[in-house]
Amino acid sequence: MSARRRGADTRDNRNPVRGDRRRRPPHSAVSEPKSNHTPDTSARGEKLQKVLARVGVGSRRQIEGWIAQGRITVEGRPAVVGQRVSPGQRIALDGRPLSATDITPRPRVLIYHKPEGELCSRVDHAPSNVASQEAEGTALGRPTVFDNLPRLRASRWILVGRLDFNTSGLLLVTNDGELAHRLMHPSSEIEREYAVRIFGEVTPEMWAQLQAGVQLEDGPARFDDIIDAGGSGMNHWYHVILREGRNREVRRVWEAVGARVSRLIRVRYGNVTLPRHLRPGRFEDLEPEQAAELYRLAGLTLPETKRKGRRTGAAGPGYKTTRGARPHRRPRKRQPHR
Mind telling me the catalytic residues? Predict the structure, then answer.
């Protein structure tokens, strides 16, 4: 065999992997093929579940479940959790397209004066009422705060920090899911102030326990501030401030030291105070300045909306309403007959 032939055989017997690596183009020129069924989640825009939660379509957890079930589509294709969307994209829920007004409704924040004896849920979950309500799809038992709220066309109301059945006072209500999420999240540490009426004497030992903090079933709890608001007879008023919203936390802290709460009213949430003129069972829109400050406390910016008459921002005089009534309008001046 000639030398030239032996050299050819030697080249043919080289390591095939090395030969492939030497002939392969640079790594920067190689691109992996993308699947046609997986949407690009790295594109600019907002996360789908965040957009839909902000407009009140559902909570983030609910929307993520719907995405996993394939109920939500973007541009006709099934969405994935974490997918980002941009304005103008076609989004549908159960085949029903969500219009541009559904995705970007006018943000509103209501101040509702919750009376005692109302539920902060859409359905009464009492055992005697669940079966009938599931059949009818409505709350047939005890009244709920939603019975007194105005109807929304393109979104839904979200309660910011629920109050139990026997607690009254300030309840913030909004159609901005992201705002509600930020206001209620423990990391925001937004102050809640309550007026508490105690039946009986609060001893110095009980007072010291309240200031030091108590141990509850779900962890330690402590008021950030306690103010003696006075009183007469067996009833005495106190104002307490805390920065979290665990279930019945104020009542449980007082009960842990042996005190009996006879009345509980929430009077402030962040920068919003319960107006004196607002009667129980009634609501009004938050003034634009207060709404902007509330958004700032939540680490957000109040979205700009198109002006339409006197109804601007997240609230306005034209939207101040009362129990189930239509938005208030100024009566027209009657022209004298000629």
Answer: 164
